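Intended use. Records such as the 4-hydroxy-3-methylbut-2-enyl diphosphate reductase entry shown here are meant for training and evaluating sequence-to-structure methods. They are not intended to support clinical decisions.
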Amino acid sequence: MTGGDWVLFAPMRMEARALRRGLPAGAPLRRTGRGLTRAGRSAVRHRDARALVVAGIAGGLTPTLRPGDVVVATEVRRADQPDEPPVPCPTAPLVAATLRRRGLTVHLGPVVTSRRLVDGADRARLAATGALAVDTESAALLASAAGRPVICVRVVADVPPQRLYRPLTWRRVRAALRTLPKVAPALVEWAEASTVREIVLAAPRSFCAGVERAISVVEQALDRYGPPVYVRKQIVHNVHVIADLQQRGAVFVDELTEIPDGAVTVFSAHGVAPSVRVAAADRGLPVIDATCPLVTKVHSEARRFVGRGNTVLLIGHAGHEETEGTLGEAPGQITLVENVTDAERIEVTDPDRVSYLVQTTLAVDEVAGVLDVLRRRFPALTGPSSDDICYATTNRQAALREVAAAADVVLVVGSANSSNSRRLVEVTERGGIPAYLVDDVGDVDLRWLAGRRTIGVTAGASAPPRLVDETVAALAGLGAHAVREHTTRTEDVHFTLPKEIRTP
């Protein structure tokens, strides 16, 4: 096994037997015996273990739990020593996500260790502290963890308001024991991933000025006009941003026909075709335009090139809102070129009058290959006076290339429909380093990290910084001795807000 010198503690014989059914041969399962005293002695015997896992059954403390539910501890506390600092379990979100992918019902929260079984008023007292489950060993087993990777997973056997000592209790215990073999493989995956020694953050990362401006437009529109505020398409491509704004009262629609008459309407950061502006004006919709100024620049260039009578080639991806908006500046007069193959095949009426534009969120090296072909085929090709690719896209790709060169694997925080986030994955993979796109820490698969020592982390321009912070905190719990930031450039770009919501 690649997990190395880790140990899995199972307090009781029946727990150990159930876990063994889900473990590979040779897994370091150790039965500790029940209670704090035996657990403490077992912890001393394994003081040199690299990573510690505790698994077994427990009593539930809240009626929201059900027998057979799994509690992954975010921290482990001593019930009889409330002033003693709890043992943190920062990797809990990673393990919880792994168990959920296995079809289990999982809860994240504190686990408390008591000297004896608790029932009735004692349960209520412990539940009032915020704990989800109670056992009689975990705190002693993990007390001397001293910075080592730790995880505690307990399957709920009984829950209030049912009393503990009833004939049905044993039936519930058996049900919990049947869940433990399903838990065991996730614990092995965690152990094999607890080899991380360094996390390197690429900088810049996360929000760019255009994204910050677009989100602020919606937030301030909600503050000024009150909900609902309607947004055509996603304001930016990130599921967490969208969910947060929806909770505040933003309504996201695909077409203007879904917007009621007179409702405040926001155009997304990706821009819209002139036909959309005309349709909104015809209906008298009060519009606030959150189009990124760099996208607006591409639209202006499109109108300028078409006005010269040039054939305009737009390097971009079909179906993306930004390309659809740019193509809409001159329907039938701008041709989309998605890749080198398209560049080789495209035909133009007058090779001496050809211009190109670029979707702002593409990869620099991806565009370079297409431009090489276009310049070879059309020597008179002209382009914009300055690079169309967004400064933030370029900066994030450049930073990640340097980080990836020193990493074993890279995680890119961003949503699947985020073009700039997907390009970050592709840039890394073209450099020969495995890379994965994750919406948040819950998408991280522990198997990607097995045996890895250095993890590179970045985020697309539409991903909130807090998602990176949460992901790094969980990864650090896998044994990282250092979290460092690698900065290639400092960004100080700021875009003013539209006049409709600008503070006087």
